[in-house]
Amino acid sequence: MSSTPGDQCGEQRDDQQLVVDVFARACPSRSLLADVTGRWGTLAVLALADGTARFGALRRRVDGVSEKMLSQTLQALERDGLVVREVVTSIPPHVEYTLTPLGQRVAGRLRALVEVLEESVPEVLAAREAHEVRGRVGA
């Protein structure tokens, strides 16, 4: 991320360093963030962190995703360079998806976030309950 005010995403500074800023509307890092952190993107990346998988196996692993949404998500992750799609010419032919090295790095960070979130579920449930009680009292 850039900390220099006024820099536009993708501009090159005098020192030839590419300036990237997720807060800049047109910066590709923003759409990449959306692709990775969208509900299905995060789950697809995490599912592929366990290894190569066929489309059907991914769909079963990512409970609740439609075929259309999973397909669109995988296409976006492939476009962004996080996933490789390979058509396996066997009988019958099938498609397999694998994380790229970039995808593996992203998956590691996402896994750490998910671990914190999963460990925090009791705190979150208590906070939600307290919020609901406050809402009823204030109503």
UniProtKB/TrEMBL annotation:
Coiled-coil segments on the chain, per record: none
The entry's keywords: DNA-binding, Transcription, Transcription regulation
Boundaries of every HTH hxlR-type domain copy: 27-125
Transmembrane segments: none
A GO molecular-function descriptor: DNA binding
Superkingdom of this protein's organism: Bacteria
InterPro entries cross-referenced by the UniProt entry: HTH_HxlR, WH-like_DNA-bd_sf, WH_DNA-bd_sf
Entry annotated with the keyword DNA damage: no
Official protein name in the record: Helix-turn-helix transcriptional regulator
Species assigned in the record: Quadrisphaera setariae
